[in-house]
Design goal:
Blueprint: H1 2-55, H2 63-79, E1 87-92, E2 98-101, H3 114-121, E3 126-132, E4 138-145, E5 155-161, H4 163-213, H5 230-278, H6 286-317, E6 325-328, H7 329-346, E7 350-353, E8 361-364, H8 366-382, E9 389-396, E10 400-406, H9 414-417, H10 437-447, E11 451-457, E12 461-469
Parallel strand pairs: 7-9
Antiparallel strand pairs: 1-2, 1-5, 3-4, 4-5, 6-8, 9-10, 10-12, 11-12
Helix pairs in contact: 1-4, 4-5, 5-6, 6-10, 7-8, 8-10
Amino acid sequence: MKKGITRRWVRGSLLVTVLLVLLVEGMFLHSYTQSYYNGVQQLMYRRFSSITGQLRTYTGENVQAIAANRSVALRRMVEQFADKDKYEFMLLDSRGEVIASTSGTGADGIVTSEDFLMAQEAEDGMGVAFYDTASGEPVMSVCCLVPYAAEDVAAMRLVTSLSLVEEQIRYVMLISGLVAAAILGFTITSGLYFVRSIVVPLGQVERIAADIARGNLSVRLPEADPPKDEMDRLRSTINRMAEGLAETEKMKNEFISLVSHELRTPLTSIAGWADTLSTLDDPASEDYQKGLTIIRRETERLYSMVEELLDFSRMQSGGVRMECRPLDLVAELTDAVLFCEPRIQQEGLVLDYDEPEEMIPVYADPDRLRQVFINVLDNAVKYSASGGKITVKIWCGEYKAFIEIIDQGRGIPAEDLANVKTRFFKGRNAVRGSGIGLALVDSIMQALDGTLDLRSTLGRGTVVTLGLPVYRR
C-alpha cells in the first residue's frame, strides 16, 4: 500500500510539480537573459543613433568636403571616446576592415566579420554578433552602417564584454535555482508528510481488517473522540463493523445452539415414540394413537421451523420474489385469524376480533402477508398464559392501514425490545422457536413498504402494530 500510494503521488502530483517548476524556471531564466542582452544592445543602438545624429549636422554644397569632415569627426570621436572602459569603438571600411579603434590597434583577436555582414543585409543597417574573443572572453559586437558618406568610413562597431552580464546572469540563475530547489524541497517534504499521514493509518487499518477477515473479531483500532478527519471516521466505522460482526457471530453461535436444541427435542420425541410404536401390535390402542398424534405434531413443528429458516434465508439473499397484487386487507387478516383460532382456543385463550364491514385495499403478496399475520399471532399465543386474551384490531388511516395484535402475555424486557427484530436474537423471556420469527416478519414488511412497531410492558403484554400503504387506483 505504501509503495502504491507513494508511487502514484510521485508519478502524479510530484512529477507535475517538478515539471511545472522547471518550466517556470526555464522561462524566467530565458526571459531574464534576453532582457539583459537586449538592454545592453539597446544602449549600443542609442550610441549609434546619437553619432548618426551628429553626422547629419554636416551639410553644404561640397559633397567631398562634407564627407571628409564626417570622416574626421568620426575619427575624433574614436580618439575622444569617453567609455573606453566599457566599449571598444571601431570604424570599418567597406570591406569590414578596422581602420580606427579606441584601443589604437586593429583589434585583432577580438572582432568578427559576422556583425558587419549582418548589417549589410539588414534593412536598418544593424548587425549583432555574440562570440568569444581569442582570450576566451564573451563579448557582444554591434555594427552599424554609416548612413552618410564619410570617405573611407563605411561602418561603426561597438564591442563590449559580457563577463559582468554573464556573472550577473549566473548569480540570478543561482538564486532562482535555490528558490526552485526550496520549492521542490518543501513540496517533497510536505507531500511525503501528507502521504505518510495517510499511508501509516491505512496500513494499520489494513492489518486490522486482515485480522477481522481471518476471524479475529476482538481487535480494534485507536479512535479519536471526537473524530477529526475522514481517517478517524474510517477507524470508527471499522470498529463498529468489527463489533457488529462479533455480535452477529455471537448470535449465530447462540442460534446454532438454540436450533440444535429445538431440533433435538422433537426428534427425540419422534424417535422415542417410533420405538414405542414398533413394540405395539394393536393400532387401535390408546398409546398407539397417542404416539401417532405426537409424531405428527412434532413433524409439523419441525417442518414449520425448517420452512421459517428457509424463508428467512431466501429473504436475506433476495431469492424471494414478491407476487404483489391488489388485496382486501380485511379478508386476508380474517383468513389468518380463522386459521389460528382453533389453536388459540386450544391454549385456553380468548380471541377478540371484530371484522370491519368495509374492505381496505392494499397492494401486497397474499402468501407473505398471511405468513406475517400467522407468525405474529403464533407469538402472541406462545407468550400468553391460559385465560389471557388476544385482541386483533384493524383500521384505515388517510394513507396507511394499521393492524394491532395485542396479547396479555409475559411481555418483553425493555433492554431486549430494541433487538427482538434482529436475526438470531433470543431474549431472556423467550420460549421455544428459531429466534428469527420477528426478523422474518420485519423483512417481509420492509419488502412490502410496510412497517413493524413493537410496544411491550414486562408482565402485562405486547402490542404489535403493522402498517401498510393503502392502495389507490
